[in-house]
Amino acid sequence: MLHHRTVRLPGPLISLSGLLALCCLWVMVPAGSVACAAEPARENAVQALRVKYQGAGSQPATVEARLMVEAQDGGLLLLAPDGRLLTVPPDRLLEREKIEQFTPLTKDELGQRLRQQLGDGFEIVETKHYVLCTSAGRTYGEWCGRLFERLLGAFQKHWRSRELDLHEPQVPLAAVVFGSRAEFVEFARKDAGNAAVDSQGYYSLMSNQMVLYDLTAGPGTRPARSQADITRRLAASPFNAATVVHEATHQIAFNCGMHVRLADNPLWLTEGMAMYFETPDLSSRSGWRTVGRVNQVRMHRFRDYAKERRPADSLSTLIAGDSRLVDAEQAEDAYAEAWALSYWLIRTRRDEYLAYLAGLAKKTPLVPASREQRLAEFQAAFGAPP
């Protein structure tokens, strides 16, 4: 089983040149302090640029984008109109000029772009916030779209507070939904590497896309004929539905102001957040009644871990670094502990948890924190971990 991992930076980042390798989805940051080498776009600075740069091909490319970070060497991290994060190293930057504002693609424009990228076998399903490009058929695409919209509404309602400055997504949210696992595997291997091949779906921080496949399909299985048929099939396999919800929660959190893409987001927190919403509400036509319901799979795993093999410093190591969550031998236990910690904090220390989230949401992209910094941030919010 693939564990849901987010992008980390490959060591001290004095320039953006190292980000060219970040098109893959799962990269770890070594522990240790680094100097802040990336400057965020300041409030009084121009946020929008027209940038001409040398792309992968022989011809230069031009993009009108939002400036996210400018590195010490002049490299740029940009938010492209389709929601992708674009890195422009200084040796590839040809021209830059200020423009009045950043203009995201419309849903129609994003849908056309996805169709061009994926081919004629795909169709577009649009909702208020989402653009789904699917080869799984319109019925399954519409089912996913309705699920995503209900989840987004429930997420915003659940976290609405004075402490958190949540907002509507700045760009349409893209999802690619394949009709078969074979199609998904072929795409995932090229898009995110071999680590994604064993998964049932993922969210990419760089492309800002969810990538999924029809979890009701399989050898010898007839296509689902209706929304109700899809719901019945997924209700019989809660883990499959939880995968879809998990990845959709990641995308929402990174697009509504909860988390900052490429900032130092502790993995226990981002995964704990997704697992908190992992209990899907498939029967409701509106709303989401199961937010925060006890995640039985994670709870049973944590109980077993706590009883049989949990070391005294388990919580401290989980908070200080991400290594346990991305180690195949430790990940199941670490994910269960991340869920348990998140569940306990949300239910018993909600005010402190909200303040902690608000602090993390102010972090600058591309600036990793040391183990000591992470522990200090946690202790400032909640006290010393036992």
3D architecture notes:
With 386 residues, the protein is of the alpha+beta class. It folds into two domains: 82 residues, SH3 type barrels (Roll); 281 residues, Neutral Protease Domain 2 (Neutral Protease, domain 2, Orthogonal Bundle). 38% of the residues lie in helices and 15% in strands. Strands 1, 2, 3, 4, 5 and 6 form a six-stranded antiparallel β-sheet that branches. It has a five-stranded mixed β-sheet with strand order 7-8-9-11-10, with helices on both faces. The protein is globular and about 60 Å long. The N terminus is likely disordered.
Short summary of the structure?
With 386 residues, the chain is of the alpha+beta class.
Number of separate domains: 2
Q: Which structural class should the secondary elements be placed in? A: alpha+beta
User: Radius of gyration over alpha carbons?
Assistant: 21 Å
Q: Supply the CATH superfamily name of the largest domain.
A: Neutral Protease Domain 2
Q: Indicate the multimeric state.
A: single chain
Q: Unreliable stretches, pLDDT < 50, 5 or more residues?
A: 1-36
Mean pLDDT: 86
Q: What is the rounded distance between the termini? A: 30 Å
CATH class of the largest domain: Mainly Alpha
Features:
single chain; 386 residues; alpha+beta; SH3 type barrels; 2 domains; 6-stranded antiparallel β-sheet; 5-stranded mixed β-sheet; disordered N terminus
